[in-house]
Write a structure and sequence with these properties.
single chain, Rossmann fold, 2 domains, six-stranded mixed β-sheet, four-stranded antiparallel β-sheet, 13% strand, disordered N terminus
């Protein structure tokens, strides 16, 4: 069944209507940046020998990343920022996008007005790395983005049509039902994945789009198609700025203007077609016909000819080019930019959204709708991970193996049964904690990107993550205990089984909370997995089975161990209050000194154990939420 119906029954008429809306630029933007300077300070360590002793000294150094960069791009134009790696291309794009506010000097203006939060809503930013969910299809990715980002004044079907219009415009129709994938999961091609990232921004119909290395990792044909797409968007009235490392000659011909950077300095700004002419006029011309982009990259690297030159000669080439720009081209650029501020740019209603339009755009969807959409997206993304064959086989194998090892165990063989109960506590403490510790670190890049664009609130995202994990966290342990419980011949009545299941499910959720808290606090998958392993090891050692008589200075650890409380509850379900002590012979003369007797006789009531697990369940999730709040979008 189609998601919506058009006039012809196929929905194509509605798609075309929406396409005309999303491709139109009602608020053309002229972007200007003048004398942008960006410096960073970093500490250095030096070791000096003083009176025969090595003394380490720390000092602060300052490095200039961008030095007086000036330029402009108008509606309908495509500006390319070229330069070698480390020349400052990505830093400049981040400044133009408003992501480095307050850390630079100079001015960035939109239609003659300073860059602000309100004007930034008309700006789309596509990062170099594609931060997308790999298991979602192209259509699912853009539809969920549309449902979250577009205002609630639009209906669900209208938002879906907006997503489909972007798919049509970007030429993604043939792969719309293919998963996005990544470097480890086979999905769409690199060029198609990049177009999906562009589609994320196009859904908001921005007037200005900034792209960081959109052709990175693409072959020449795919790169040409990508830039053709960008050029087509510019021709429809949008303003585009993109950074590129080494475009082909075909790609270079599509650039309206070019900004060449070298070690944070500008060597050229102007029309792409006139770059070779300018460099020839200042004494640098190619010795044979070649790609202008390759020639300019050689110059930016300090190479005037194709032949290798020494570091001193490279420095001289750069200094000569920089001097030529500062004395010849730079002043002309500033005069041109200063004189290009038209009356239209200064007009209050020139290109910026009216207050009514701004209010409509900020009319975001409700918290419940955010939660529902994020929950649906999370379930779709994790459906392959949650119930993949390896994980299911792992749980089934553990259940059958443990059930076989304790096959119809005797209730009077207390030591063996305590071993089974503690094995259950071990497996379902480590398994969910270790799996959940990767949840937030794996989604960190996507989370930061979406939060910075205001797609949803943190509470709706966090709640959806908790709810989306429940199927795996509850179904697999239920299957495990159903198999293991009856194979092992534990207490044969339904009430005891249900109590055991309830204790186990609560315990699993607490263990999951520990993994979420550590993952959110550390935000590094490797480090977080190491910490959770050490933490669980401490909890297991103090759980009451391996070592019952813990030294006083470490005894307090068991009261922070959820394994300790789970183990006590499982024993209580199987043996009841005081019965296990009798079966262990703890009532006999001299047996109260037995370590096992000391553990089971310890006064920790079932109610206290349940309360402790509830507090941990809530506490770990509050810690995870607080840690996520500290991440700056």
């Amino acid at each position: 069944m189609p998601l919506f119906d058009g006039e012809d029954g196929s929905g194509q008429s509605d798609v075309r209507d929406m396409e005309s809306i999303i491709l139109s630029t009602n608020y053309p933007i002229t972007l200007k940046f003048v004398d942008i300077i960006y410096r960073v300070k970093f500490g250095t360590k030096t070791t000096e020998k003083i009176s025969g002793w090595k003394v380490e000294q720390k000092s602060m150094e300052e490095r200039t990343i961008l030095d007086k960069i000036t330029g402009m791009v108008s509606p309908g134009n495509l500006l390319a920022i070229l330069g070698p790696s480390g020349s400052g291309k990505s830093t400049l794009l981040n400044i133009l996008a408003g992501r480095l506010t307050g850390n630079y000097t100079g001015t960035v203006s939109v239609n003659g007005r300073p860059l602000s939060k309100s004007t930034s809503r008309n700006i789309g930013f596509v990062t170099q790395d594609d931060t997308l969910y790999p298991h979602l299809t192209v259509k699912e990715t853009l539809v969920f983005c549309s449902l979250l980002r577009l205002p609630k004044t639009l209906s669900k079907n209208e938002k879906i049509r907006m997503a489909e219009s972007v798919i049509t415009e970007l030429g993604l129709g043939k792969c719309e039902n293919t998963i996005v994938g990544n470097s480890f999961i086979r999905g769409v091609s690199g060029g198609e994945r990049k177009r999906v990232s562009i589609g994320h921004e196009m859904l908001m119909n921005p007037s200005l789009i900034l792209l960081d290395e959109p052709t990175s990792g693409l072959d020449s044909t795919a790169a040409h198609r990508m830039v053709m797409t960008l050029k087509g968007m510019a021709q429809k009235g949008k303003t585009l700025v993109t950074s590129m490392h080494q475009p082909s000659s075909q790609v270079y011909q599509m650039f309206d203007s070019v900004l060449l950077l070298s070690e944070g300095n500008c060597l050229y700004f102007g029309q792409g077609s006139k770059a070779i002419e300018y460099f020839s006029s200042v004494g640098f011309s190619p010795s044979f016909p070649m790609n202008p982009a390759d020639f300019m990259l050689d110059l930016a690297n300090g190479v005037a000819q194709v032949d290798y030159q020494g570091d001193a000669e490279k420095s001289n080439v750069r200094q000569s080019l920089l001097s030529s720009y500062n004395n010849v081209l730079g002043p002309m650029v500033k005069v041109w930019i200063d004189g290009d501020i038209t009356a239209k740019d200064r007009a209050p209603s020139g290109s910026l959204r009216s207050s009514e339009e701004e209010k409509r755009t900020n009319n975001s969807i409700s918290w419940f709708n955010q939660f529902t959409i994020l929950l649906q997206r999370g379930i779709k993304e994790r459906r392959h991970e949650s119930f993949n064959s390896l994980r299911v086989v792992q749980v089934l194998a553990a259940a059958i193996l443990s059930g076989s090892m304790w096959w119809h165990s005797d209730i009077h063989n207390v030591h063996d049964r305590l071993g089974l109960l503690f094995f259950i506590s071990i497996f379902w403490g480590v398994f969910p904690a270790f799996n959940s510790v990767f949840t937030f670190p794996q989604e960190r890049a996507i989370f930061i990107k979406e939060r910075s664009s205001g797609m949803y609130t943190l509470s709706s995202y966090f709640t959806a993550q908790m709810a989306g994990d429940l199927p795996m966290e509850l179904i697999l342990p239920t299957v495990f205990i159903t198999i293991c419980y009856w194979m092992a011949g534990l207490r044969p009545d339904a009430a005891a089984f249900l109590q055991t299941l309830g204790v186990l499910l609560g315990y699993v959720l607490v263990a999951q909370g520990l993994g979420l808290a550590l993952g959110a606090a550390i935000m590094d998958a490797k480090q977080a997995s190491t910490v959770v392993t050490v933490t669980m090891l401490a909890f297991l050692l103090t759980g009451g089975f391996y070592v019952q008589k813990v030294h006083a200075f470490l005894a307090w650890l068991k009261y922070g161990s959820f394994t300790f409380y789970c183990y006590k509850l499982l024993i209580g379900v199987q043996y009841g209050e005081g019965k296990v002590s009798a079966l262990l012979g703890c009532s006999q003369h001299g047996m109260m000194n037995n370590a096992a007797c000391g553990f089971v006789a310890e006064e920790v009531s079932p109610g206290l154990s349940v309360c402790a697990l509830v507090v941990m369940f809530v506490g770990y999730r509050l810690l995870a939420y607080t840690a996520l709040r500290r991440i700056k979008a």
